[in-house]
Amino acid sequence: MHELTAEDQGEPQAPVLWVTGGGSGMGRSAALSAATGGWRVALSGRRPDRVQAVAEEVEALGGEVLAIPGDVRNVEDVTECASSIERRWGRLDGLVLAAGMNAPRRTWGDQDLEEVSDIVETNLVSVARVVQLALPQLRRSAGTVVVISSYAGWRFSPGAGVAYSASKAALASLCQFLNAQEAESGVRACLLCPGDVDTDFLGQRPEVPGAEARSVMLTPDDVARAVQFVLDSPAHVRVDELVISPVSQR
User: CA torsion sign, 106 to 109 to 110 to 112?
Assistant: First the structure.
């Protein structure tokens, strides 16, 4: 005899969140925050060991998680992520795009065009790719998209580099078009622009900040609180853009 599930009985189900770049930094913190808040979490990221470690942290919090290692630059990987979420839960209510890339060579005088291409592919093209694949499910749930850009995408930041700044700045238009064209389905997008955050990402700077500099930066948990605020906002509220920075930001 078939045992009726909550889905069979039409009971309300916990929302589902897909986090890219979920194996570390802001993606990891956003995933843990969402799990604590009652969301079911799908994690994707390039490093399987990191993704699995975060999945175990989610489970330790009592959360339901799906770990799907994959590179956002790879169409097959992203397609499989979207399909796995559909097969597992049959819904998607939120999307946090936290995967990002930069390189130490950041000026017209020293940058490498192959690196430029990889940075733009990761920070911009891959965001569009994931959104495109997630939209059919997000439309059904009137879901929320949080695109983690950067302070460098909101205001000119010379040290961030040509490719990184240009790719992050372009995300503003991506979110604006998403909001303009998908409002009828209830989908809403937020461009989240954090200032300096103490994560492993700082290792990609030409000069890696030391402990003193890191001590006054934002933490990944600070960013996760902002992400959670957007995800938990009422369905009629759209947070178009949110900039958070440490007091020390210049």
Answer: positive
Q: What is the DSSP string of 20-67?
A: ETTTSHHHHHHHHHHHHTT-EEEE--S-HHHHHHHHHHHHHTT--EEE
Q: Does 250 map to a domain? A: no
User: What's the whole-model pTM score?
Assistant: 0.93
Summarize pLDDT for 51-95 with one digit per residue, the tens: 999 999 999 999 999 999 999 999 999 999 999 999 999 999 999
Angle at 131 between CA 126 and CA 134, to 5 degrees: 125
**pLDDT by residue (tens digit) across 33-47?**
999 999 999 999 999
* Residue 66, in any domain of the structure: yes
Range of the domain at 154: 16-232+240-244
Domain annotation covers residue 2: no
Active site residues: 164
User: Is 153:205 a contact under the CB 8 Å cutoff?
Assistant: no
> How many domains is the chain partitioned into structurally?
1
